[in-house]
Amino acid sequence: MTAPEDAIRARRRLTNKLIAAHEAARLRPFFAPDVKLIVGDGALILGADEVVAAFAAQFAEAGFADYVREAERVDLDTAGVRAAEAGRWTGRWRDRETGGTYLAVWRKVTGQWVIESELYVTLA
């Protein structure tokens, strides 16, 4: 059996690959239906449909390349059903790069880890 921390890190790596491939619809299973996402400029996106739509819009931008999130730590709750992932994120376009710090809350639902909420802080 895969350790929860390893499963979350693997799911994060897969979301990075899907973002690099600009496959917004394939990101849906990684988000809880009621996900809450605070993006780097402080805007709030509510719900998986809106998060996927935001990714699709970003992918349509000229020059957008990818977002890479690199987990520095994953902490599990005592029940083993919620986790906090913290790390650094980078967004890349042909002509620029930005990034900062992020925190993601994961929840285990029917045996699979999904993102319950995320906070991105732009620092670069």
The strand count comes to 6
- The CATH architecture would be Roll
Subunit organisation of the chains:
single chain
Which secondary-structure class do the elements indicate?
A: alpha+beta
Beta-strand residue fraction: over 45%
Regions with little confidence, pLDDT below 50 for 5+ residues: none
Helix content: 10-25%
Strand order of the largest sheet: 2-1-6-5-4-3
* Amino- and carboxy-terminal Cα gap: 38 Å
Average predicted local confidence, pLDDT: 96
Tell me what you see in this structure.
The mean pLDDT is 96. A hairpin with a 2-residue loop joins strand 4 and strand 5. The chain has helices at residues 4-20, 48-60, and strands at residues 31-38, 44-46, 64-76, 82-93, 96-109, 112-122. A six-stranded mixed sheet has the order 2-1-6-5-4-3, with helices on one face. The radius of gyration is 14 Å and the shape is globular. The chain has two helices and six strands. By secondary structure, the chain is an alpha+beta fold. It has a single domain (4-122), classed as Nuclear Transport Factor 2, Chain: A, CATH 3.10.450.50.
Show the helix and strand layout:
Layout: H1 4-20, E1 31-38, E2 44-46, H2 48-60, E3 64-76, E4 82-93, E5 96-109, E6 112-122
Parallel strand pairs: 1-6
Antiparallel strand pairs: 1-2, 3-4, 4-5, 5-6
Q: What brief labels describe this structure?
A:
single chain; 124 residues; alpha+beta; Nuclear Transport Factor 2, Chain: A; six-stranded mixed beta sheet; 6 strands; globular
